[in-house]
Amino acid sequence: MIPTEFDYKRATSLDEAIQLLSSSSEAKLLAGGHSLIPLMKLRLSEPETLVDIGRIPDIKGIREREGKIGIGAGTTHHEVETSDLLREKAPVVADCAGEIGDPQVRNRGTLGGSLAHADPAADYPAVMLAIDAEFHIKGGNGWRTVKASDFFQDMFTVDLADDEIIVNAMFDPIQSASYAKLHQRASHYAIIGVAAALGVENGLIQWARLGLTGAIGYAVRMPNVEEALIGKQPEQDTIDAAAGIAGDGLEDINSDLHASAEYRRAMIKVFTRRALEGAVARL
Amino acid sequence: MSEKATVSITVNGKVHEEEVEPRLLLVHFLREHLGLTGTHVGCDTSQCGACTVHIDGASAKSCTVFAAQADGSEVTTIEGVGSQDNLHPMQEGFWEEHGLQCGYCTPGMIMSAINLLNENPKPTEKEIREGIAGNLCRCTGYQHIVKAVQYAAEKGVVR
User: Fold this and answer.
1) Is a pLDDT exceeding 90 seen at residue A99?
2) What's the domain range around B117?
3) How confident is the model at residue A117 (pLDDT cuts 50, 70, 90)?
4) Average pLDDT score over residue span A209-221
5) Residue B54 Cα, gap to closest chain A Cα (Å)
């Protein structure tokens, strides 16, 4: 399968990439290409210009600064999966990256590409919601910051203008968080994926954030599950009760050849329970 | 007609400089421009792994990379692994353990398996299965492929 013709421009800096995006018509960013190139081969996407940002050093790497962790948008899933810093300070993020696709995909695909593409079955969005990440974005009008909870708006639709680039994702270190996923066996996309993060003080759950992917058009929090956890002890009865209402009230559940809506509804509860058990195990 | 891109790609140790269409995929650069047909096109949808090569030492599906993206990179294909007279330990493993039937997936499978052992020289059976999760085989049921990788791990694989 051959994509339609396009002009190829390689940016060597963030500002050059923004300038190329602004000055080219129908331009798209190319990072790892593992969401975009398959779409172009199917001719579902026919950009006139590709701006290759795969070699911009400013958007790569994983750092800790002033107590926050930042992952450059151009960092590959494999780099996230194998990061000692993340394994120590935010293991759920490394776990999630290790669940994406397969080794070859993880060697090429990037955090920013996954977030900007916002596939309904992508893994990262669920975890970004659970760890309350914020994204630093730069465009023709300068910098802005968007919280994950405001970023994902609809299927393949995010709060990102045509001339903007996600530069990094920032979040606080977190131990008590976990990601549980039902794999589609060939593509390894999430049929259902649930990320859970918990805060416990004095033996009681003070806050909870649950991110869900694969269920509807875009990743969402599960506020009813979060409310059911707050003020309770982090034990199995609490988890079972909260997981038992996961997905209740959610409409327009995806249904495709991999899983019916009814099956997905059942799996939301199962994988919410597993994610919560994983988070409690890390308390 | 879009402007061509000039690429310089080192394949199996030899530098190739060419003008290519930006939309040319790396797998077609390898097969059609260089005649290296050991790298196969299977599903053409980034799933089956038959087109797996190494780019700068890391496994990648060459049907999902533009040749222009590989400019300046070092690419290794199955032709750059071992020789008829001196098989790479992984190739020897596939031979000894009957790790193939029709052979279509084999070049990609070997490139993925070498990538795995480069990162994890003594993998468990589970780690081997995860390491080849990006490669589909419709013949063997994978059991003999796992044994082939174990054989190579025993012998010790060098890059």
Assistant:
1) yes
2) 89-155
3) very high
4) 98
5) 9
Output the domain CATH number for residue A39. 3.30.43.10
Q: Among the residues of chain B, which ranges form H helices?
A: 26-28, 89-96, 106-119, 125-131, 143-155
What ranges in chain A are assigned the alpha helix state H? Answer: 14-23, 36-41, 77-81, 84-89, 91-98, 103-108, 111-117, 124-130, 148-151, 223-229, 236-243, 261-281
pLDDT higher than 60, residue B159: no
Instruction: Work out the end-to-end distance of chain B between its first and last CA atoms, rounded to an integer number of angstroms.
Output: 41
How far, in Å, are A113, A160, A212, B54 from residue A156 at the CA level? 12, 11, 15, 30
- Between B156 and B155, where is the model more confident? B155
Q: Given CB atoms, is A39 within the 8 Å cutoff of chain B?
A: no
* Residue B110 tokens, joined: 């070997």
Identify the CA nearest to A36 among candidates A114, A104, A148, A96.
Answer: A114
What would you report as the CA-atom Rg of chain B, rounded to the nearest whole angstrom?
A: 16
Nearest to A283 by CA among A171, A203, A188: A203
Same structural domain for residues B64 and B103?
no
Its pTM stands at 0.96
**CB environment B86-122: b (16+ within 10 A), e (fewer):** eebbbbbbbeebebbeeebbbbbbbbbbbbbbebeee
Total domains in the fold of chain A: 3
Residues of B with CB under 8 A from a CB of A: 1-3, 5, 21-23, 25, 44-47, 49, 52, 55, 58-61, 64-66, 68-69, 71, 112, 115-116, 130-131, 133-136
